Amino acid sequence: MQREHARRGFSISHQKVVLEIDFSGSLWGYTEITVVPNNANLRTIHLHARQCTIHLVTVASHQADFVHCDPLAGVNISTPQDCHTYPELKRKIYSALAEGDEGELSIAIPKEVSLRQLGQSGHPTASGILSETATPEPQTPGPSFQTPTGPEFMPIVVHIEYSLRNPVDGIQFVLPTDAYPYRVPHAFTTPSSPDAARCWVPCIDNPWEKCTWEFEFVVPRYLEEPDPLQRSDDPDFGEPHGSIPTVVVCTGDLVEQVSHPNNSNKTIFLFSQTVLTSVQHVAFAAGPFHVYQIPSEPTMEEAAGAAQPVMHAFCLPGHESMLHTSTSFLRLAMNFYSTDFGSYPFGSYKIVAVDDLPTQRFDAATLSLVTVDLLHGDDAIEQIVETRQALSHSLASQWMGINILPKTWSDTWLVNGLSLYITSLFIRKLLGNNEYRYRLKRDMQRVVEWDNGSMPPICQPQHLDPPDSATLPFVNLKAPLVLHILDRRLGKSGTSLGLSRVLPKIFLSAISGELQNNALSTHSFLRTCRKVSGADLRTFAEQWIYGSGCPAFGFTATFNRKKMAVEITMRQDAPAYRAHEHSGVSKMLFKPVPFFEGQMTVRIHEADGTPYEHVLDIRSTFKRYEVPFNTKYKRIRRNTKRYLARQQAAQAAAEGDAEAVEAMGLIDMGFGLEIWENEKERENWKVADWTEEDEQVMSGATYEWIRMDADFEWIAAIAFEQPDFMWVSQLQRDRDVVAQLEAVHALAKQPTAIVSSTFTKTVLVTNYYYRIRCEAALALVQCAIRALDFLGLFHLFKLFLRYCYDPEDPAQDLFAHTYVPKPNDFSDLSEYFVRKSLVHGISRVRFENGKTPTVVRQFLVDQLRYNDNTANPYSDTFYICTLISCVACALVPTASPERGELLREEVRSEQTAEDVNWLKQAVEEVNRYKSMDRLIPSPHNVVTIAVLEFYLLLTTANLVPHDLRVFFPLTREGNYTQVRIAAFDGLFMSKQWYTPAIMRYILAVMANDPCRVVRRHVTRCVCQSLALLVTMGEMKNGPKDSESLLIEEDGSVPEKAKENKKSDVDLMIKVLRKDREIGKNEVLREFLMPIVLAPNVDHEVRWGIIKLADLVLRGVEEAPPKVTIHLPPTPVVEQPPPIKLPPKPAVRPVKTGGPPTRNPLAAAPAPPKLKIAPGGSQVRASPSATPIAPAPRVTSAVPPPPTTKAKPKPKPRQPIANGVKTPQVPKAQSGGMSLNDLRACRNALKKLRLHKNAVLFLQPVDPVRDHAPNYYEVIKNPMDLSTMGAQLEEGMYKDRFAFEADFRLMVANAKQYSPHGTYAHTEAINFEIFFEKLWNRINKTLEVAGKTSESRSTGPQIDTTKQPPSKSTVEVPTATPTAPAPQQRRVVKLKVGGTQAKAAGKAQEKPKAPVTTKTRKPVVPDEAPPPYVDDGSHDLLQEVIAIERERDEEKRHRKTKEVVQDISPSRASGSAPPGKRRKHNVDGDDDILALATPLSRKDKVNASHVPPGTSTPVSEPPVTPTLKIIPPATKSKKEKAPEPAENPAPATEAPRTSNKGKEKETYNNQVVPSKPRQAAAATPLNEKKCRDVLRVISRLPEYPIFGQPVDPVRDGCPTYFDEIAHPMDFGTMGQKLTEGKYVTMEEFVKDAELVFSNCRQFNPPTTYPVNCADAVDKVFKREWAKALEKKLSWVEKRSLQGLMTSLVKDEISFVFREPVDPILLGIPTYFQIIPKKDARDLRTIRQKLDSDKYDSIEAFEADMDLMIRNAITFNGTESEVGRIAVIVRDKYKDMLSNIKCGGGTKRRKEGDGKGTPQPTKKAKLS
């Protein structure tokens, strides 16, 4: 990573940045980068630059060409409105990030600039040579360029002028807003993203690319405008009175501050950083800061003989009083680090407190930006420790983390760990050794809990990426602990030198230049440790650095009197290794350590009180050690007269005997406790003492106590058991705070009266460290049990009584006392922390049923009620927070979930009246503090935060209802950031947050909230909340629902739990995706992608939303790119031309893979008679000219029929009716069922099978399986859905009514056999109800179809019933012939568009001339087909395919909405009104419903102009040849009437479409003239929409074969242009769009359909090209329907919204502003007069307008008229409301007339799509 400059071709030696800052949100200036080439072939310089606008680039003073492209800014997806395409977005973001690594700014070196090479004697500064010990100077590359291996070149200067406006990342501008009017404007660099540095300056954004820096900042002198009166009077008019001048603080040392030479109102700040620094460690802040210079210590200065680094602290106005108390200790930290670890690597240090920093700190070279939350006043207590820890760590990072970097990303643990390690050493000096060791012990316990197999090693050399943000906190926690135990082990090595000798060497090598590029690696660090100490650290590194996990030890100790030794048994376990034991992959990834080796120190305190240390050498998982024992005496102080000894010692100490005092301290820390020595007091405190039996056991013990790992050398869980009296001795006599903590935790597991007394004494003795006293107070909770008569609670009350007024009666029962606290006095900080711990302990006491005792409840309420802080010098805000949290804790019962499930009536008892009363008191007190905090805010509003957490806990426990009014107002801007975060936490724990209104608000916050911290927190909480709600059982069908049964454990539960863990997660995700309010949430689906694709989205918010989409949405899987291989074409065999039959043109057979037979006498099958349309184009029955919806395709099972003579003999099996051969009837219609009825029954059967109540009826009843042995004795005629389906397909139903009868029989059987109220009877009733609704709908549809057919049919009846694409049935009704017998055949009528080239033109000139059929040359397959037998199936195939084409043709015309249709346009196209577009029904399930939808009013008018039997002339649109079979018998009434077919018109006419099947049938080749029909208006071309459609389909994997013209040679189809007269492809269409050759949308779609029809014409069905055509056609139709969707234009919508706004603001409209509420207004009969569906008001109309429910101004006006009409209807014209209604009507009519007059031309222009597009919907922050 450090050698990237070699690959890049250059390095940077110096960079200068000059910026002028405008605090309104912009900055501009330039940067000069000194580039040192290392390659003579360098031609392009790649730099990182995001967000910036580059204006000019010069290289060596020559203007250079450059390309600036931000991949992240241009991320887009194919269908941004589809939320399911988020995987595509994720992939593109990854690609953009990878692309950005190379650099967003590419600069071409001009030809005038030559790269001049230096000789070996070149100037060292210019060449970049630097000795290892030289101090880096400006313009020098630094140590990273030592010993160059190649030639050296002269540096060149790249000058870049750029600007930045409203940046998203890198720079944060904090400005006053309406919500925060008192904010002080300031700006600073922010670590908002990993690549934040490149977002504000062009650079090489690499932590290992270092250079020297110069900075020049131009800022306003003051941010306030000077008073003009003062300007005239005061000579120094530029300084407003009382204003603070603008200050710039930057990385480096301040060189000078000067006034601007041309503008006296501006100031220039110059900084210089002479130490090599990465751009990622450069920062600045500008604003009216207060400055505090941290004073130096004269004594240190005199001792060291050198000046100390200059240190300053800066803060915004209003915080200056807290600056001194928060930062004055930093001088002590600077001196400590400089003395112990080497001199400060830079010249100065600054710390700046700013607002809205996304992290707690941002550490840069010489500068640390910290959040203002770290500042505290003189009265703070808790925050002092946190602030000192954070600020001392920021200073330590200057040595380790900024000056010294990790060599690779895997070395991050070392740099972070060392900075935290030296910080902990300073904390030890600042706060004491006890605090240091206590923190170490606590951190080790956290690591042991964490490192159980779920965490990787802290160092992974194989990982080349930065550490994951999820594991980085663990690394930062474990790394300093590993260094601590390393220091302990090095100290025990041969030289006894630990890290105190290693670290100064490392820091010295960094300053001297010996450490290459100041990059420290794990290997070099361990090598240095080995050199210093001589210890072999390979085993240590493998276990603790490169391995994961922590050991768990179990020790037991017994005394062997014969051997005079203590036998210690050790067992070691590795939980992390056990977790990965059976997975080889996870063992490779996590590298868990199977067992740990090393030495452990055991300290045995023997009978004489002397501690003896022994070392156990651990080399295996189990071993027994014999530790020699030195003392032969028994335990001392074990006699029955110890009270006398105690009294004598206490008396001597009281008289001033110093030796007695010292002896007391050595014997027992409790001897100095006066009240403990008074017998009466002991009784008052209920002090328990050892019994005589205990004394005997204790006197027989040979040692006092044993401590394992006494030197704190292991990060391990150590379980060691010894008697309680030994733990008491360890607690009272061992001075190590860790030993005392271990004793407290061990005794808490053995609750006895002795233990309770011991803990009480520990709390009272002030010699103990305060944290041990706090732990003892909390441990008393374990003794507050009924078995001890709640002795622990008594001791807690007795201890807390010291802070309260004493009871009047000395013998007062503490369980009935009212605890009124004395006024607070927190001067003794130890007592303050003990007092808080006592309150915590009291709140945790519970009865067996999990409830808190009444006395505890009253105690906590009294503490809140009577708290008095008037005379306290310290703030009590955190103490109040403790009280509030304890009240919440005491309110919630702690019954376990298991008991709650099995013993619900016992544990989950209802709230009693006492519980409700106490809850009410607690809520009143908490609300009082909330109100006080609003009036007199606490620091950072911590009391309000505690109140919100109080309500959150109670609502989660279902103690109070979840009231959004508690949380929601505090989530808005204007509240303190942490308050908003706590309020959002409460909001997300409610199931109400994903209601549409709140979901809109949350999405608006994620997208637009000015606070980055809030945006990120809300985004994280969305995902976490869903997981919590599912876990809590708030979601339906959650994982807990499946575990409601009580399962008896059989030993396999753990294994099953492991197996089901993944399935539980999958089930949870399925629950979320199916949830109507989450996975199906319309608001979430609508705004998810716009937020993610917004240019100003925060990167963490973007990833959080993508994670949310992963949870609740099923992503669309992207197909991998396909490689298309063009195989050579199959051989072509010549065939003699067929015999021409003038009266009957040949029909081209469908290609099915086999070659046509070579019979030269037959040109086409004879039975179908061909009818030539006026276009006269060549007629073929093959698929052509029309796109086919993706559905199962009908293919022939036999080879194509051979060409036979004109009149073949009919087969004997085929019936002959009046000389006409009847076509073969499909089996399903053999019973006489019509095609409409068949389709209806199939559709109904499909829906019935999928219904939820259909389970019992899917298959026949099995008496054995279904436990119905006498079923067939009761039910004589059984029926089920599978039987009905079989009978339907076998043609056993003559009509749909027979099908209905069978269904009713099935339901009647179920009702007859199953008694009323049984499951089967209920299911049958529900199933029958569903069938009634479905069947009524089908009947009405078919009846309307029949009536429409009857009213339109004239002349011979033609069956135009369409077939579903997946079925191959043809309806064959019988009819009486009307022509001579020789002509009475089935007539195949083909509609041919103008796409068949030259034949069409000839036919138009001579329509009566016979047509010569051009036969395509056959293609010979690899294998010969079987002999062909003519069984009539081919004729049926031809007819079915043609019918399919006709159906698809109708679907296409419906979608375009330009055809005057005979059915409702919205139903025909499968789309809903604008704004409610539905997915196109590909499967055709509801085709029967669209078959005969009643005509709309407009369609009826248009249809009336077309006489039956006429056709509409059209020009060239491609039309599929459609097969029409003339029925030889009369037509049924319920069949659909024929529709007029379309006839091609000359190409000069406007393109039109027409209804099909309407021409009058004739039995020759003549065409009956028809009257011209009024054509639908053409849609002007909208080029943008057309290009959008092309762009969408171009992303499909099947698109490439249609993207360019067909090349017969390249594509292996030499006969292509013989068969396709009008080739077309999408590339040509795009070119025609560019050249402006399209005028209307119909012309464009005609060419698109030509592409698909050509493909289907040339290629047989089911082949790869046709499948591709189907896929692309499907997407094209979907996108085309969207493009043609009709709705209000943007200008019209905005105009109507303005009208509504004006109308609402008008006072006269108050009557209509809100919906009518009959109850509120006292008019209960309103909805009886005005139907509720017709009720209108201004708010409802505005909502419909905003959600695009109106497709025209007229529709909007109709709703307004309806509103006025309702008012007049209900109130009367002469009423007051009626008069107001008339006035309102006149007003909006006038405004509407203006809109119509001024918008008519504008609307027409908007139709072409070249106007202002409608902006994307965005979530708006309400």
UniProtKB/TrEMBL annotation:
The Bromo domain, residue ranges: 1249-1321, 1594-1666, 1704-1778
InterPro entries, alphabetized: Aminopeptidase_N-like_N_sf, Bromodomain, Bromodomain-like_sf, Bromodomain_CS, Ig-like_TAF2, Peptidase_M1_dom, Peptidase_M4/M1_CTD_sf, TAF2
Ranges of Low complexity composition bias in the record: 1160-1174, 1181-1197, 1373-1382, 1391-1402, 1464-1474, 1540-1551
GO molecular function: chromatin binding; metallopeptidase activity; RNA polymerase II general transcription initiation factor activity; transcription cis-regulatory region binding; zinc ion binding
Protein origin, superkingdom: Eukaryota
Coiled-coil region(s): none
Region entry Disordered, spans: 122-148, 1127-1234, 1345-1432, 1444-1580, 1796-1822
One GO CC annotation: transcription factor TFIID complex
SUPFAM superfamilies: Bromodomain, Leukotriene A4 hydrolase N-terminal domain, Metalloproteases ('zincins'), catalytic domain
Keyword Nucleus annotated: yes
Sequence ranges of Pro residues compositional bias: 1128-1146
Transmembrane segments: none
One GO BP: transcription initiation at RNA polymerase II promoter
Record's keyword terms, sorted: Bromodomain, Nucleus, Transcription, Transcription regulation
Alphabetical list of PROSITE patterns matching this protein: BROMODOMAIN_1 (PS00633), BROMODOMAIN_2 (PS50014)
Polar residues composition-biased segments: 1351-1371
Keyword Transcription assigned: yes
SMART domains linked: BROMO
Subcellular location field: Nucleus
Family (UniProt): Belongs to the TAF2 family.
Role summary: Functions as a component of the DNA-binding general transcription factor complex TFIID. Binding of TFIID to a promoter (with or without TATA element) is the initial step in pre-initiation complex (PIC) formation. TFIID plays a key role in the regulation of gene expression by RNA polymerase II through different activities such as transcription activator interaction, core promoter recognition and selectivity, TFIIA and TFIIB interaction, chromatin modification (histone acetylation by TAF1), facilitation of DNA opening and initiation of transcription.
Protein name per its UniProtKB record: Transcription initiation factor TFIID subunit 2
Organism: Pisolithus microcarpus 441
